Amino acid sequence: MCGFAGAFGNLNLEFNDKKIFNSLKHRGPDSSGKYKSESCIMFHSRLTIIGNTKHGQQPISNKQNTITLVYNGEIYNWKKLRNYYFPNEKKNIKSDTQIILKLFEKFGIGFVNKLRGIFSFAIYSKKNKKIYLVRDRFGVKPLYYYKSSKNIFFATEIKSILAMSVKKRINFSILKSYLLESKLCHNDKTFFKDINSLDPATIYEISNFGEKKIKYWRLKNNNHHLSQIKIDSLVSDSIRSNLVADTEVSVALSSGVDSSVLVGELLRLDKKFKSYSYGYAEKKYSELKDIAIKFRHEKNLIQNHKTMKINDVFDKLQKAIYFFETPLGGLGTLSSFDLFSKVNTDNIKVCLSGEGADELFGGYKYYYFSWLKSLFIKKKFSELNDEIYKYNQNHEDKLKLKLLMKFFVDKKKMFAPDGSSTYSKDNFFTKQFKEISTSKNYNVNYEKDELANEIFKDIIWRKLPKLLHFQDRASMANSVESRVPFLDHELWDKAFSTNPQKLFNRGYTKEIMRKIYFKRFNTMPKTKKYVSSPQREWLKYNLKDKLIENIRYGKLIENKIINFEKWKKSYDAYSNSNKLGNSFFIWKILNAELLLKEFF
Prior knowledge:
Blueprint: E1 2-9, H1 17-24, E2 31-36, E3 40-46, E4 60-61, E5 67-75, H2 78-85, H3 96-107, E6 117-125, E7 130-135, E8 144-147, E9 151-155, H4 158-162, H5 172-181, E10 195-197, E11 202-207, E12 210-215, H6 228-241, E13 249-252, H7 257-267, E14 273-280, H8 288-294, E15 301-308, H9 313-324, H10 331-345, E16 350-352, H11 357-361, H12 365-377, H13 381-394, H14 401-409, H15 431-434, H16 450-462, H17 464-476, E17 481-483, H18 489-495, H19 500-503, H20 511-521, H21 535-542, H22 544-552, H23 555-558, H24 564-576, H25 584-599
Parallel strand pairs: 13-14, 13-16, 14-15, 16-17
Antiparallel strand pairs: 1-3, 1-9, 2-3, 4-5, 5-6, 6-7, 7-11, 8-9, 8-10, 11-12
Helix pairs in contact: 2-3, 6-18, 7-20, 9-25, 10-17, 12-14, 12-16
């Protein structure tokens, strides 16, 4: 929805307003505003989705000018909250921004528990000389901060903190975690030393007398006994709650189950809407034909797509790095970033996306493998063999016990969606770089069950945080708000379970979503392609020469991070191999190089 930045404390500083607003404008091109007092300054740029520009103008203060708010996101239940708590003020409260301010006045910071939506915001209390930084339950909307001896700086993106004259320094520990362990967004640290991300579901209270962080919501493993009909109803309610907007709402559509369910729900409303998909010239990797065929009879669905071209990769990746402030996950992430430029060109401001459904309903193949491992550990060999038999009856890729045993003993647990490892074993890093400590991920060991452990790890540090980061940056770089209906906390509070009997059936993952899909389309979904981009071929052959020249005299060499000759030798061996193999070690080096060039 928006971008904001600010500082609180002893503000004996000069602020370059133009530079700060320029760092925000892609997140909010419709209007901008500024607030300043003796101890707090706030900047805001708005993407208007709910309410007109006047009613949602920010920073916004109460009548007494004692409380001021800057906010990014959407509150889906804002009208319900207004009608319940402020029934006599319906004519005056015309946006979700206003309801946040009113609720804070009435209840204090505890009001955040009443919000249903995606959000990050800062509330300054002039009377109490206190500021609150708050982030939504899953961390859909970003919020960063930097603490100096006298001030705290905060913003929706790091570049806005840098625009407030905060010095930028490389966080080598995070860089090593990425290059050697493929970790991104796995804790509150960033690639910029001392600039941190506020944890999801957190209230950060700062005053002249100290500071404290409050966790206002926690995810619980709910071994529910809800019927399929009830879960279907909850999913429908979540999707429809995300349609709250005064602008057109679209869908990011792939060939998978999750985005198809989003489309299926919108088709029930019998109104025309747009979908957006990306693809490639290489047909074996492109989903565009499959999508077109699947929905060819849906007259209310207006399909749009964009094709990523190999000659555009370097320029678009460098551009994306600026907005992401991190490496990108892969060619698919870059294609999504490129696709949102098409959404923007069509003057669409809201796009629904399917993030969170795999974690909620057990969609990744290695979740199924983890359950099989539990059976192995518990010596339930008869049940294990039965599951392997069911899987092989329904899948072209057959499971073999030898392959499973390799999975069972893998300690790294950094997996691609298909279950393959992403951990780097490369030896081209310098001794100096190897001696740097890696940045630890959040510890998740409170679940005794192997399957539950894997799902919680993905939600808390391994997968979901980076997926949400990618989605926010890809969309907001193009002034489009991405919404994630499957990450509605009310849905998770009622329907989340790691019980394998609810998640898997006959070797298929995400059984609940498969049934929801069937109810909408009267057919079971096909198995989604796990390798859906030509990244390996492009890096192996077409992009090699240009990529090598980017690295040869680049920042990674300058900072003594890699040994160029050893890295090139590994690259040559990969290129000369008859197998496509794993190109991720090349992708990581390229992204790290472009990140350092852009910011350091």
